[in-house]
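Work Package 3 committed the consortium to producing structural models of liganded targets before the mid-term review. Because experimental data for this complex are still outstanding, the team generated a predictive model from sequence and the ligand definition alone, so that downstream docking and mutagenesis planning could proceed in parallel. The input record is reproduced below exactly as it was submitted to the modelling pipeline, together with the SMILES string for zinc ion.
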Amino acid sequence: MDIWTLLNIKMDIRTGEYYQQHKDEACPNIAIANESLTVWIDEEKQSCFDKQMLCNKVFARTGKVEKDKSTWTCKDFWKEREIIPKAAMEYIHWEALKKALANSPQGTQRWILKHSTGQCGVGQMLQRWKYQEHSLCPRCGEQDKTTKHVIQCQAVDA
Ligand SMILES: [Zn+2]
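The resulting structure, written out as tokens with the ligand in place, is given here.
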């Protein structure tokens, strides 16, 4: 092994030791230059995640305030955003969806999450991210507002 390989191994070992020593300490919320995505909970930017706290925030919020979306559960948010009738929410088999997602390959999980949240390279998002100046579908030329268009596009090659 050359010197670079040995140094790399040494640094990996030290990184692991450092992580083990400090893994339970809270991380400060430090601004990162040129960061393109931030996660905020209750007006505090998150620089690391306490998985249990995040899970509680997502699934078990208490004290919901109707006009304050930051107090809503994810289900409340998606019901409002996708205009899902309250009665229909009761017929969605959330546990089956959870199990199916957990049993899907990691790439499929990522694709489903990106498409269901709309956070992927469709026309509107590419325009918003300033990768292009329009939101037109590359196949049919229509306005490509959401990921739904990817599924509903009428172009022959879609
Ligand atoms: Zn199209």
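Reviewers should note the following from the model. DSSP finds eight helices and two strands in the chain. These observations will guide the Year 2 experiments.
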